[in-house]
Amino acid sequence: MTPDSIGVGLGEGLPGGPGPRARRAAQAGPAYVLTEETPVYVISVAAELSGLHPQTLRQYDRLGLVCPDRTGGGGRRYSARDIQQLREVQRLSQDEGINLAGIKRIIELENQVAALQSRVAELASAVEGAGAALQAREAAVHASYRRDLVPYQPAQQSSALVVWRPRR
C-alpha cells in the first residue's frame, strides 16, 4: 500500500482494518458510512501511510499536534484526515524548518480561522434571511394601505412660480 492510497479500501486487508463481518455489513447496506474522518487505521498502518515512525506519531499525540480517536481499550485509531495532518506536520518540520511548538500554533490558528469563516458564513446567511423577512413585512404593510381614503396622485413637476404675500 502506498501513502497516496489513503482512503482506498479504507483499511480492507490491513491489520486493524474491518474484518469479514464489517465487510458483509458494508455489502448489506449503508449501516456504517466511512468518511475522511472515520478512524480506521491503527498506529502501524498510519505510520506506514504517513512515512513516519510509530514513536513519532505517539510523540505528536502527546504534544497535541495530531490527536487520533481512541478505542475502548485505549488504542489509537487514525483517520485519513489525521494522516493528511501528519504529512503536513512533517512537511512544515522538514521543508520549512518550523519547530513543533510553532507547528502546533499554526494548526491552532488554522483551526481558529476555519471556525471563524464558518461563523461568518452562518451570520451572512442569517442577515440574508433577516433582509428577506424585512422585505416581506414591508410588502405586507404597503399592501395593507387603504388607497380608497386618499386618492393617490403622483406629484407633477411644474415650472410655475408662486409668489406668496402675507396678509396684513
Word description of this protein:
This protein is an all-alpha fold. It has helices at 20-28, 43-50, 54-63, 80-94, 100-143; strands at residues 69-70, 76-77. A two-stranded antiparallel ribbon has the order 1-2. It is elongated, with a radius of gyration of 32 Å. The chain starts with 19 loop residues before the first helix and ends in a 25-residue tail after the last helix. The relative contact order is 0.08.
Low-confidence stretches: 1-26
- C-alpha geometry: elongated
Strand content: under 5%
Side by side, the strands of the main sheet go 1-2
Rg, Cα atoms, Å: 32 Å
Tell me the span between the first and last alpha carbons: 106 Å
Give the H and E element order: HHHEEHH
Q: How many DSSP helices? A: 5
Specify the helix fraction band: 40-55%
Mean pLDDT over the full residue set: 81
Keywords:
168 residues, mainly alpha, 2% strand, disordered N terminus, 2 strands, two-stranded antiparallel ribbon
Summarize the entry for a quick read.
The protein has 168 residues and is mainly alpha-helical. It is built from 5 helices and 2 strands; from the N terminus they run αααββαα.
Write the layout of secondary structure elements.
Elements: H1 20-28, H2 43-50, H3 54-63, E1 69-70, E2 76-77, H4 80-94, H5 100-143
Antiparallel strand pairs: 1-2
